[in-house]
Amino acid sequence: MKPAFKVYGNLDGKMAGVPHISVAAGESGICKACEMKGFCYATRYQSFRPSVHASYLKNGVDLTAKVYDMNEIPYVNSHLCRFDAFGELYTGNRGIIQLTNYCNTCKKNPETSFVLWSRNYRMVEHYFTTHEKPENLKLIRSTPRLNDPVHEIPPLWDGVFNVLTSKYAENHGIVINCGVKDENGDKIGCARCSTGCYVKGKKVICYEIVK
Prior knowledge:
By secondary structure, the protein is α/β, with parallel strands linked by helices. The chain has six helices and six strands. The chain is globular. It starts with 19 loop residues before the first strand and ends with a strand.
């Protein structure tokens, strides 16, 4: 049976080697209200690649159409996978369906470590008051504003992700630990980064320079 939604594996940069299940950036109500949408790398990336944008749009429609049976959920042939490398959880019932399909993907692939970054805090937190969080799922809470970092991890979440300007980080003595370079001057990819966003059980506070 053909999977109900798509697993992508075509990113480069720091996401090289990490498959992802994504939807189109800018479509969620969270994206539309986001104070950082003017800095959104995902939206800029899609604007140069219409076919990619179209594929992510379709994946969003598929992911929010219904809660799929386990035999319709895709297998992930990797030890790591990211949810919403592009896009965001939808709001309302569509988002609940989307998050349920993500949790079922975790259950179908117990050997894979999944990570979901989200600004849809209230829905995620409410959802997991009545649903069990899969053991192989990490939740990273993305801050909604530039240069407004959160330095403590709230309950339920496994980490927070902050986006800063270089000047702000320097003025406040904040060490950037996402997208840093190795001794050869190459960016360290997520799969081998010591910050540990994808490491099961590790709590993380990430700081990245705005792209």
